[in-house]
Amino acid sequence: CAPNKAAEGGVSDLLELVTTLRIFISCVERYPHDSVAGAVAGRALAPLAQATELCVRGVLEEYKDAASRGNLVALLSAVWFIREFCEASISARGLVRQHGGPSLLGPALSNPEADDHLLRESVRLLDCLQGPVGLLQTIPEVLEKGPRVLTALLWRIRESSREPWHGFGSLPPKAVLQAAISSFEAHPDNRNVHDAALALLADLLQSVEYRTAFADVGGWPYVLLMMEARGADLDVQRRGLQILCELQRGGACVGEHM
């Protein structure tokens, strides 16, 4: 993009204001009971809240503009800003939800020219707005679409499964396992989908709840067929063996399939 002198000037002025604000915040943190700090903070709260809302609204407007023009560079930048806001601030998440929330991500997730970076950021934002439940509910919607979106979702679900504070434990094991298996069935020839699904399964099956649910959702044929079809792929064989080792720990009706 060509340099925008007006925009550069605005950023410079903003950074100057932020510097002053940081100094004030630092002083308040060091002396929270100071009478001057308390009085100034009380007067500044409403204008700062308004400024925060203006920032979030401004980025949302830029996102919509970039989506309407098909400007993927600006779209990625806007998604990144929104995701940063939402991960750091409950109020920002509320504002984004008021303006469409996850439905805003349609242009980013459905654009066939979207690169992997944009897809990863979009899926991460979806996770921030809706949590693992939102990720899981999106799988059926994108099964028949491009496999790259599906791959990004599977990798993000795996990351969520490793964050115990993230609410992943509330998901039904059968539903999560079925999402991985249905992804393979929808794209039987796509290596990226396979790799993401196998990695997710290898992690999930460390849990006895998931091992117990594995046979019920038809997991055995999926793993065995995958290993047979891609016998020369060392990564697939490694993942497959990892899954089989986990299943040997019990809870998955091993004897009926081995």
For the structure shown, list the relevant keywords.
single chain; 258 residues; mainly alpha; 2 domains; 75% helix; 0% strand; ARM-like; ARM-type_fold
3D architecture notes:
- The chain has 258 residues and is an all-alpha fold.
- The chain has two domains: 61-171; 172-253, no CATH class.
- The protein has twelve helices and no strands.
- α3 (72-88) crosses α4 and α3 (72-88) packs across α6 (116-142).
- The chain is elongated and about 70 Å long.
- It starts with a helix and ends in an 11-residue tail after the last helix.
Describe the structure concisely.
By secondary structure, the chain is mainly alpha-helical. The chain contains twelve helices and no strands.
Q: Which structural class is indicated by helix and strand composition?
A: mainly alpha
What's the overall geometry?
elongated
The residue-averaged pLDDT reads 85
- By DSSP, the count of extended strands is 0
Instruction: Name the beta content range.
Output: under 5%
Order of helices and strands: HHHHHHHHHHHH
Number of helices: 12
InterPro entries: ARM-like (IPR011989), ARM-type_fold (IPR016024)
Question: Which SSEs are present, and which pair or pack?
Answer:
Blueprint: H1 5-30, H2 35-69, H3 72-88, H4 90-98, H5 106-110, H6 116-142, H7 147-161, H8 173-186, H9 191-204, H10 208-214, H11 219-229, H12 234-247
Helix pairs in contact: 2-3, 3-4, 3-6, 6-7, 7-9, 8-9, 9-12, 11-12
